[in-house]
Specification:
The complex is a heterodimer of chains A (about 1000) and B (about 475). Chain A is mainly beta. In chain A, about 5% of the residues lie in helices and about 50% in strands. In chain A, strand 11 (about 150-155) and strand 12 (about 160-165) form a beta hairpin. Chain A is globular, with a radius of gyration of 31 Å. In chain B, strands 2-5 form a two-stranded antiparallel ribbon. Chain B has a two-stranded antiparallel ribbon with strand order 3-4. Chain B contains 19 helices and five strands. Chain B has about 475 residues and is mainly α. Chain B has one domain (about 40-285, about 295-460): Serine Threonine Protein Phosphatase 5, Tetratricopeptide repeat (Alpha Horseshoe). Classes of the chains: A mainly beta (about 1000), B mainly alpha (about 475). Strand 30 of chain A pairs antiparallel with strand 1 of chain B.
């Protein structure tokens, strides 16, 4: 790799050794804006040289240049001006406003819109923001980049899922993730593989190469999402891949990087000797004895031990190369790419290989017909490992395993674990957990121009996944061995036909109209077989097992038929109005109520386009607002039908009710009100967007308990209401700009206030409020949906050595009731989230840092109940180092109570002792790049851009002391009632990457 | 020409979408059966009928109630660690007790599947049903009647099971105290038919009687492992016995005894094996996933036989057997150690602790003989035979010498030894005004609030008409 780089660079350096000399003179002049006012800070360069200057406060400048050379005047928000030096020594320039920034086209649902005229509330992560950001999974492009989007990684493993919420949590039982749309194709986010502990599944976006992405648009308000009808309520993420442009020469880009991955902050467990001493001390105190570790079967101090975290972690090595060709002729544009990536994580047994190709092509076939296609085909091969509360999860069992256990015999062969926690080193090294996945996401379209402004477009899209997963546990881990094989064919297709019309009347009335019909069908077939009882580890397949079971063989599906329309109108770019309507019929809902209608009205007033508006420093100011609805139908495929499961009684086939019918079941409805401003100041150097939203979800799709006499536990109903509201702010600023140096900052902030307004529940608390409870959380009417409900831990009494808690009235007690003394003790939902990016450009160097943060949320690390305290699993597992500090003498500020205290075995009961402040600030991505100067490249007559870059991720994190060894980003379920909870999470990886991006 | 092509292609594409649109109705479940499908073929109608028995396999329907009746009386010494079961043993259960909640729920779980047939099957037109066997088509009306009979039998059994544990016995106040809510509808979204108040015990018993008479008149005398008219009669005999309708009880028991195909088995190998002894039992097989509740046979088995060792013989029961040596029924047991590691004796009426394959008896000939004997004795009749002969038939099979004279205590002792671990003891004591526990505490005396179970919170919370039992 390094030698290749040298080979490539050497001739370039040689080429640059040529210099030229010519007669120079001093040119001076004044630069003004289109109103004739002087422009300070305009940068002026002599093209092809490093010679440059800036205008002073009065707009004056002076520079040395030779006749025939070109002066280039550049300033933010102004069109660039080039002037050739002639005989005169004075060149005055009047610059013109560059409206291009506002004319930039943004991808929205079923079409596009200029930035100036957009009245929907969307967050855009555009090509500029993506250009220098190197990530290995596309969802990472959203983290800390878009207001209103809260992204939590579930772990640092390759292929691990992310939990994405757009503007809070809107639902209880139905799916809460946003809809992903790739180049117009709605994609599935089914989890097509085994559960491996936790309930988060695997990442649905691993198939996409981040360098193929041109932009991400997050649709947030009803004005933007209503058009997605039944699928829009949780927000929509539109992913657009790169396209060519007409009349552009081909650009070939070769992007190549190498990455090293190491594990981030982890728990510190006891070493073998510390463990022996700890267990022995505790035993002696509790039993008034004075025995040696040997007496407890722990071996002698000094005997060997094992660092299991070391056994299961490593430095991962990743190689990535992608090649793309992009360009266009007069009638045809193209973008073709190929990617190959071979990634290793810091966890032994976790690798991801991805090979992908993409073809995006469109052509003006004749005068009236345009046709095109966007197709991506990806093969991934993921080797993965267990996670969270699962004894086969390395980053769980390695913490728990007794460090005196030696995993190998003297010959290096693995030994079987003596207890129920398997030999985790053997699991990581020898077990197979492999998922092969082929995914095709693509569409073809034809667009006919029927009359000027009137177009008919027809599109066919498909998302097809073939996935097969294989688990094989070897003899040393599972007696007799075990194998599981799981295949999934997941198929989604979609047909749309639309008519669109665009016309300007009387110069100032601009009208766009769209009507569209859509049909979408999803089908999913699964087959799972398993077997146990293998004669040899060399027998890999279920067919060789002595006991074989067909666990599942199923096919299920759903379909949606929709009709929608949208009218966008503006008068003179001053008054903007957009109205959307959609009707959906869903196969998932009750026959009496399976059709839902959704609408939105969005309006804007661009004050800055009014004649009376005369504020110099404001370039653009628009007030906008919207109201409308969207829906959700994600409560399984047949929640409305009475279903009978088959079984047998004494060998006779039988069928009985497994779920009851509700023919009335309808959509979950979310109504959003959204108001805001969008603005640009100081010649577009400062952009500020602020919005406030209030979102009410009613008719929650909810599994509600029914009277016992019905003989059925729950029925799917539309009941209850949740409200989310918040402020969002997006600010971008060019803090400093000269020819050599530029500093830009972008910031986004989101607040969230969540309230459960109404639920259906039989459970009523002391204050007469209805609630639903799941484990450590309780959703109470009138409170936030995701509150932790726990007994308050009050620490260790330094005088008595007892653990203390607070009872429900706040009194200190050593004997709390772990049921009735629980109170609301925190929230899994942050008050404030966001990110900021600083980019510095000095000459050809660029440096950018992306930070993201979360404030005001708590995380519950349930695994602490096991690795803190004296007695978890009979006191046979390892503990954190903090546990060495148990109470011995009055005055001790101890972590654990006295081993002799009656509270000793309760100290690790579930309480706020495991609830930690989740606030953090993280340098998510730091990139340093260097572009070879244009003057060098021009001389090669071949290369158009060469960029060398280095990126580090998760390099630096600020978090509370309690989070030592714990990643603040963790989540082991996507269930809205279990957010912010984890058992043990494999932390986010620290990665170091160097790469080279060459274009020619 | 150009315009024709354009418009033509537009129409063609629109047509494709239109065709696709019809497919929305094609999306149907492919593993589970929807209610539309279940009544569309004979095979699925029959499966839905058999599905009622599937619900009975749940250990909280047949299993838990039997265990509870054993350990809240004097046959079993419950030494297990389940606190919900300990509370029941100690007459200290409350409305949040999970084991009680499961017993209540499973009564209605069985009634639900029965009501599916009772409510929906009469409305099925034969023309709408497809058949694969022509004789089924020819006999559809007979089979429909039979299926309805099975559903009525099952609903009666479930309601009776519930009344025995959640309501005071008939003797408490001549049946005027609270019985069960009576459910006759199948849930389809409207909850109001399922928020019934409880009826009196007399009304509950009348409902059960009506269902059983309907079943008796609809079902064949023998019906393999499914409910038969004989089973309906045997359950009626028990109902009448519990209600002290002595002549009715003796008459029904006598009809059962006189039915071809049913007779006392010659020995005790009938547990878990086919036999003329059985009238109705719940068959469990290792590959059934219907056995979802507590695997009651693990409680009755010692750890040496893959059980928990929670429910050994009480000393009182052992004493009762040993008072008359040579009783073969004491041999239906194994000596081992209990959950507390003490020497103990366990029943082997449910031998398959590991696999959950044991088949609990619901109705068998031994009980029917003893029902006839007790009813004749109390009523002063000899319908079918004398009480002495009936008791001696049972004693002879057990290897004991025949009695020459008979008292009510003799009959009850014989019932105890014959039917122990089969869920009869508690009701036999209560209806004969005998204390459930040998120590004669007030809490276990007939008439005590705590001899019956509380109505669970789950019912009280969502049913405004629900009524809790007094004392809870």
């Amino acid at each position: 790799m390094r030698s290749k780089l040298t080979l490539m660079l050497t001739p370039l350096l040689v080429l640059c050794m040529t210099f030229s000399f010519a007669q120079e003179k001093t040119i001076s002049g004044n630069v003004s804006d289109q109103n004739g006012l002087p422009l300070p800070g305009v940068s002026i360069v002599v093209v092809g040289t490093s010679n440059g200057t800036q205008t002073d406060f009065d707009g004056n400048y002076a520079i040395n240049a030779s006749t025939g050379q070109v002066l280039r005047f550049t300033y933010v928000g102004q069109k660039t001006v080039n002037r050739t030096v002639g005989s005169s020594t004075t060149i005055n320039v009047q610059m013109e406003d560059d409206a291009q920034a506002l004319e930039e086209v943004v991808v929205v649902a079923y079409g596009s819109q200029t930035k100036e005229k957009i009245v929907q509330n969307v967050s855009i992560v555009g090509e500029e923001a993506l250009e220098n950001l190197v990530v290995t999974s596309p969802d990472q492009l959203l983290q800390g980049q878009a207001a209103g989007v809260n992204l939590t990684n579930t772990s640092g493993l390759l292929g691990a899922n992310v939990n994405i919420q757009v503007r809070g949590v809107n639902t209880i039982n139905a799916g809460s993730g946003p809809l992903f749309v790739v180049d117009g194709v709605v994609i599935t986010d089914n989890d097509n593989t085994f559960a491996r502990g936790g309930q988060v599944g695997s990442n649905p976006l691993t198939f996409l190469n981040p360098s193929d992405i041109a932009s991400l648009t997050v649709l947030k308000d009803a004005g933007a999402t209503a058009i997605y009808g039944t699928r829009g309520a949780n927000g929509v993420v539109l992913i657009t891949t790169k396209k060519g442009t007409v009349n552009t020469d081909a650009t070939v880009t070769v992007n190549n990087f190498t990455q090293f991955t190491k594990v981030n902050d982890l728990f510190q467990g006891l070493t073998a000797d510390e463990y022996r001493q700890f267990r022995t001390d505790v035993f002696n105190i509790q039993n008034g004895a004075s025995v040696a570790p040997q007496a407890l079967g722990l071996g002698a101090i000094g005997d060997p031990g094992t660092d299991f975290v070391d056994e299961i972690s490593r430095t991962g090595f990743t190689q990535h190369v992608d090649v793309s060709v992009r360009g266009g002729s007069e009638k045809t544009t193209y973008f073709v790419s190929a990617t190959y990536e071979d990634a290793e994580s810091f966890a032994v047994g976790n690798d991801l290989t991805r090979a992908a190709v993409r073809v995006n092509l469109d052509t003006q076939a004749n005068k009236w017909l345009k046709i095109g296609t966007n197709i991506g085909v990806t093969n991934t091969l993921l080797n993965t490992i267990g996670r969270e509360n699962n004894t086969f999860a390395p980053f769980t069992s390695a913490f728990l395993t007794n460090p005196t256990f030696i995993p190998r015999d003297v010959d290096g062969n693995f030994l079987r674990s003596p207890n129920f926690i398997p030999n985790i080193a053997a699991v990581a090294e020898l077990n197979t957990d492999r998922t092969e996945n082929t995914r095709i996401i693509g569409s073809i379209f034809g667009e006919a121009t029927l009359a000027p402004g009137l177009k008919f477009r027809s599109e066919f899209g498909v998302d097809r996944i073939n996935s097969s997963s294989r688990l094989r546990s070897v003899e040393i881990v599972t007696a007799g061995g075990s194998a599981n094989f799981f295949t999934v064919e997941d198929y989604l297709y979609r047909v749309t036909n639309s008519l669109s019309y665009a016309k300007t009347f009387g110069e100032k009335h601009n009208l766009n109209a769209l009507v569209l019909q859509e049909f979408e069908e999803r089908r999913r077939r699964t087959t799972q077989v398993s077997g146990t009882g293998f004669l040899s580890d060399d027998q890999l397949n279920v067919g060789a097992a002595t006991t074989q079971i067909v666990d599942a063989s199923n096919r299920s599906g759903s379909a949606i038929r929709g009709f929608l329309g949208r009218i966008s109108y503006d008068y003179d770019s001053r008054y903007l109005l957009e109205v959307t309507g959609r009707t959906d019929e869903s196969s998932r809902l009750g026959v009496d109520n399976n059709t839902g209608s959704f609408y939105s009205v969005a309006a804007g007033w661009t004050l800055s386009n009014e004649k009376f508006f005369d504020v110099d420093f404001i370039d653009f100011l628009t007030l906008r607002g919207s109201i409308g609805t969207a829906g959700n139908d994600r409560l399984g495929n047949f929640p409305a039908l009475a279903l009978f499961g088959t079984n047998q009684f004494g060998g006779l086939a039988s069928a009985n009710v497994t779920s009851p019918a509700n023919t009335q079941l309808g959509f979950e409805q979310t109504r959003t009100i959204d108001v805001g401003i969008r603005s640009s100041f100081f010649n577009n150097r400062l952009n500020l967007n602020v919005s406030y939203y209030k979102r009410n979800t009613t008719d929650l799709l909810f599994n509600v308990p029914v009277p016992e006499q019905a003989g059925t536990a729950t029925v799917s109903l539309n009941a209850g209401e949740i409200q989310n509201s918040g402020w969002e702010l997006e600010l971008s600023s060019t803090n400093f700009r000269s020819q050599d140096f530029e500093w830009t900052t972008s910031i986004n902030l989101s607040t969230l206030d969540n309230e459960l307004i109404d639920i259906v529940s039989n459970e009523i608390d002391n204050e007469g409020r209805k609630f639903i409870e799941t484990g450590a959380q309780r959703a109470i009417e009138g409170e936030s949906l995701s509150n932790f409900f726990l007994v308050r831990f009050n620490g260790i009494n330094s005088q008595t050595g007892d653990a203390e808690w607070l009872d429900i009235d706040g009194n200190v007690t050593t004997t709390p009731n772990f049921n009735t003394d629980r109170v609301v003790a925190g929230s899994a939902l942050p008050d404030l989230t966001g990110g900021f990016t600083n980019t510095f450009r000095y000459k050809n160097f660029d440096l950018s840092g992306v930070f993201n943060f979360s404030i005001g949320n708590q995380v519950l690390i349930d695994g602490l109940r096991f690795i803190d305290g004296f007695d978890a699993i009979g006191g046979t597992i390892n503990v954190r180092r903090q546990n060495l500090n148990f109470w011995r003498n009055p005055g001790d500020q101890a972590f654990l109570p006295s081993p002799a205290s009656p509270t000793a075995n309760n100290a690790n009961q579930r309480s706020t002792a495991q609830l930690l402040d989740g606030d953090y600030l993280r340098l998510k991505n730091l990139t340093l790049g260097y572009r070879l100067p244009q003057s060098f490249l021009e001389k090669t007559k071949f290369l158009s851009s060469v960029r060398v870059y280095a990126t580090a991720t998760n390099l630096w994190t600020i978090k509370g002391d309690d989070l030592d060894g714990i990643d603040p980003e963790n989540n082991d379920t996507n269930d809205p009632l279990g957010l912010g909870e984890s058992f043990f999470t494999a932390p986010q990886a620290i990665t170091y990457l160097v790469g080279l991006n060459v274009q020619f | 020409m150009k315009h024709i092509i354009k418009i033509g292609s537009v129409l063609a594409l629109a047509l494709i979408t239109w065709n696709c649109s019809e497919k929305i109705d094609d999306i149907v479940p492919e593993n589970a059966l929807s209610s539309d499908v279940i009544f569309s073929t004979f095979g699925t109608i029959e499966a839905a009928t058999i599905g009622i028995y599937d619900g009975m396999q749940d250990g909280d329907f047949i299993g838990s109630p039997e265990m509870f009746q054993d350990y809240s009386s004097d046959n079993v010494n419950f030494v297990g660690s389940f606190t919900t079961l300990q509370d029941i043993r100690d007459f200290d259960a409350n409305a949040t007790n999970g084991s009680v909640a499961a017993m209540w729920f499973d009564v209605f779980d069985v009634i639900r599947d029965a009501n599916n047939i009772i409510v929906n099957l009469p409305n099925v037109n034969q023309e709408d049903v497809s058949f694969t066997v022509s004789s089924d088509a020819a006999n559809f009306e007979t089979l429909r009647t039979q299926f309805l009979g099975e559903a009525h039998f099952s609903r009666a059994l479930a309601t009776f099971q519930g009344a025995n544990v959640f309501a005071q016995p008939f003797q408490f106040s001549n049946g005027s105290s609270l019985g069960m809510p009576l459910v006759t509808e199948f849930f389809e979204g409207d909850i109001s038919p399922f928020q019934n108040a409880r009826t009196t015990l007399n009304e509950t018993h009348a409902f059960i009687e009506q269902d059983l008479i309907l079943a008796m008149n609809s079902l064949p005398e023998t019906n393999d492992i499914r409910a038969s008219s004989t089973a309906a009669k045997a359950l009626l005999a028990r109902l009448y016995l519990y209600r002290e309708q002595w002549t009715d009880a003796a008459t029904m028991a006598n009809e059962v005894i006189n039915t071809n195909g049913f007779s006392l088995a010659p020995d005790f190998t009938f547990y878990n094996n086919p036999s003329t002894e059985h009238i109705f039992r719940v068959i469990n097989q290792a590959n059934d996933d219907g056995f979802a509740g507590i695997d009651f046979d693990t409680f009755y088995n010692p750890t040496s036989n893959n059980g928990r060792g929670d429910m050994p013989f009480s000393q009182d029961l052992i004493d009762a057997f040993e008072a008359e040596p040579g009783d073969l029924r004491l041999d239906i047991s194994i000596i081992s150690v209990d959950a507390g590691n003490n020497d103990a004796r366990f029943t082997s009426k449910y031998p398959n602790g590991a696999t959950g394959e044991s088949d609990p008896n619901v109705l068998r000939m031994g009980e029917v003989y003893l029902n006839r004997a007790e009813a004749n004795f109390r009523g002063g009749t000899s319908i079918g035979d004398t009480p002495l002969n009936d008791v001696n038939a049972i004693r002879t099979r057990a290897g004991l010498a025949p009695l020459t004279t008979l008292t009510l205590d003799d009959i009850l002792l014989e019932r105890r030894k014959e039917l122990c671990f089969e869920g009869h003891r508690r009701m036999d004591l209560l209806r004969n005004n005998l204390n459930l526990k040998p120590d004669n505490g007030a809490i276990s005396a007939p008439g005590s609030d705590k001899v019956i179970l509380p109505i669970p919170d789950d019912e009280l919370n969502i049913n405004p008409n629900a009524q809790q039992n007094p004392g809870y």
